[in-house]
Q: What sequence folds into this?
């Protein structure tokens, strides 16, 4: 299965931080996320956690039905987020 995290170049944990609102994506990272997931880059930079989670859930559902070329290998864990240093792979 395609690994969306590897394609974008971030860890699953960093996506957790983005979805929780603990971090905002840089414009460059937001562009990569938008290209791979189809979620608008503005949402990754300026969206609320609720908007990001809803868009992520929609992306996952489309991928599950075969409507997207990418899908996370495992969904980010919403309940296990912690305040810590998440960093994007480069």
A:
């Amino acid at each position: 299965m395609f690994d969306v995290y590897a394609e974008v170049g971030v860890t699953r944990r960093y996506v957790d931080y983005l979805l929780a609102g603990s971090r905002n994506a840089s414009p460059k990272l937001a562009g990569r996320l938008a290209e791979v997931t189809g979620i608008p880059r503005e949402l990754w930079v300026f969206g609320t956690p609720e908007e990001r989670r809803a868009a992520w859930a929609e992306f996952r559902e489309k991928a599950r039905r075969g409507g997207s070329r990418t899908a996370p290998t495992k969904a980010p864990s919403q309940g296990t987020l912690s305040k810590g240093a998440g960093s994007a792979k480069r």
Confidence is low (pLDDT under 50) at residues 73-90. The two ends are 22 Å apart (CA to CA).
